[in-house]
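dumping these here so i dont lose them again. two proteins, back to back, each one seq then structure tokens. dont judge the mess
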Amino acid sequence: MTETELRSSIPLPTDVAGGPAPADAVEAPTEPVFQGRFAHGNEGYLTLVWRRFRRSFMGMMGLVLCVLLIVMAIFGDFFAPMDPKRADLAFAPPDHIVLEAPDGGFSILPYVYPIVETGEFDPVTYQPLTGPDKTNPTALAFFVRGHRYNLLGLIPADIHFLGAVDGRPIHFLGTDKFGRDILSRGIVGSQISLTIALIVVLLTTVVGTFVGIASGYLGGKLDIWVQRFVEFVLAFPQLPLYLALTSLIPVTAPSNVFIAFVIGVMAVLGWAQLSREVRSKTLALARIEYVRAAIAVGSSDMRIIGRHILPNVSSHLIVAVTIAIPSVVLLESFLGFLGFAVKPPLISWGLMLQDTGTFSVIGSYPWILSPVVFVLITVFAFNALGDGLRDAIDPY
């Protein structure tokens, strides 16, 4: 049977009188012709961005690490196994963690052998030698009781995520020159380091966006004078200026005042580059047809900026924020290493790196470089997140 004969053999729909039904009486298919992975319906812009973003392995890894870092910073005292201000054995190496029970069998829960002085001395440095005490193991467990703290600064608590069952001191990354636990200080220090980074990036983003949009959209003499001022700010060598400004703070100033001044200095010197980028985006958007049409029908400048300019600049701002955060973390760590960022008794990653100022300390106690790991993870996490967002927002 040919194709023509096959089609003619299919009965046509009929009306009530038995004759052939009109063409408009034939029901249209209710399902779309093409179904599958390319039929996404009426997806919004954010849904499309998320669908592209989750295909990026590095972007998703950066997102997970950023969330973990923020959670660690918020609940720092809960995750810290030790009191960050408690002094024990100075320059104690990291504890030995094993899954071997004291009787020699396998154990699900790990055991820690505490580090004690062996009674011997190094023949070169004459420093007392330390080693694990095999006769005095310590069992580890989750959600154990330890030193008291205020959860979120309000709720008194003494439960810690991981610690010794019997409350003995444990040092997963060793101790510093004062015998303080490096891991606990690194976890608690993330609160100061990340807080400084987030506040500085927030201030620079708000100021840079406002100045860039105003300069690019209004134009004229305002644009000329604003850009000359931006060039004046960018012309300064930032590092000497950071050191000069932070050295103006009295040594006896409270820690909160010192941190506020450091944040202010970083924000004042960090907004100019972002304003240049936003201005270039605004100049391009101001020439698009729908913006010129909005101007022609008499829309106010605030409405045009809020409805047309700012939403189109926001994608660039999101990526710029995720890339600026690790830059501020690195800057704070560097200034803290030089002693110009955070003062004791506060804790930050840069302040912890001051102990690595001499080669003899690094050579004898290499675990003192552990705070660098926190900085590296933070920089990698936010850079990976920024790259993933950039590819998802602008895939072309």
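---- next one ----
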Amino acid sequence: MTNRPSYIGVFLTFARNSLIRDMTFRANFIIETISSLSWAAMNLGFYTLVYSLMHREGRSDIAGWAQYQFFVFIATTILVNSLVEAFFMENAEELSEMTRTGGLDFVLLKPMDPQFLISVKKISWSASGKLLFALGLLAYSLPRIEGLHPTAVQFTLYPLYVIFGTLILYSIMIALAATSIWLGRNQSLYDFWFYITNFSRYPMEIYQGPYGTPLRQVFTFVIPILVVINVPAAILAKPLTAENPERLLLAAFALVATIASLAISRWVFMKALASYRSASS
């Protein structure tokens, strides 16, 4: 009887092969890295200009987020997105093509969980540039937040909730990608992922009023997009005390939302996989 392969070993093999692939086409790797860094830098530059104009008008914050607090928010956005891009995005995009061409057959023949093999088959190392940019922005912004003295608890919870946010985005992505097994091609549904994730790029406090409040409720408690960035950014950039019960409850809900998102996406993936018929059948 042969031993089952190690999931960690297989993941490390995928990571090594992806690095070899990226280094084989170095010009493409450099272009992708520069492009992603340029997007991050332009995003930061835009909000720097916004806050500069606000300071001239005597205003200091956007929905309770001062400049360097919001820079932590931006850094968290870049960090979560870079993790999603590095580990999951390219793989989810290929699921539709694998279903159409029969490439999914070879995944199902492997003695490992098919969702794992599909999700981490390729690692996009070019996203590491944005990840380093985000960490640098965090290191620059945190000391400049007035009155903030981050505790060990905040530094411990922050990466944990960044992982939670990444898993929520992955869950939505893989569930939408799995629908290609039923539909053949689902580019319009997959594009839906990009549309709804745009809501996570802004503080949830801006969603107010007769239209904003329902949006905040839906994208917090139904499709938990708003907790992806807001919770880890607030944990690190703002004091976390018992005087902020809503923030503590939201942090607890983010954990529940992560578990629920993974469970639902797993159910959708397995139901879709049960309907799969080989392209050669």
